Amino acid sequence: MKQGTLKIHHLGHSQSERILWLCEELGVPYELVKYDRDPVTQLSPPALKALHPLGAAPLIEVDGMLLAESAAIVEFILNRYGNERLQYGSAHPDYASYLYWFHFANGNLQPVMGRSMMVGRCGLAPDHPVLTSVQGRLDKVLALVEARLAENDYLAGSEFTAADIMSVFSLTTMRLFHPVDLAPYPNILAYLQRIGNRPAYQRALAKGDPDMTPLLT
After folding, report:
1. Is there a single domain that holds both residue 178 and residue 110?
2. 0.85 cut: is pTM over it?
């Protein structure tokens, strides 16, 4: 790998799609190394676990440095290669909104989807208090996203930003693992159509997950 070349270790059908998408949006060249999930456990393969103790994906390598955690990687790429694109500076009127929705993805949206998936697999009765509590939280989170997208085309405001790149996985690919009906949320569905029409999003999925049809409906 040439000095300064960005290498992305990508696990299929995972949050690492964010990194490919971000690089495609920014026009950042990268070397792609792809890994498939274990067919039985659906977890990372040994080759990826050998790179990181948690078997985490995504991982990037650049200049001898290895970095995990998708949010940290997104911030690193934005700051190193972004030239102030896809993010708002502190002087921007929507700066606080950008920060909120950027961190909302891994702070609320993805965790509640994950909890809902795990609790749903426990075989609890439909009226079990744990199940109803988790479902109630998921409903609130999706309602909040729906309300935001009723007011704005994108999560941070009128412009597409990295806050959208952080959030879309939970509304699309995550539903391969945990089906969620988005029919009650027309603004989310309209938003996903806008996302699906982005050439960079299409390129990222074609390179990283060519076997997957994105769940945009």
Report:
1. yes
2. yes
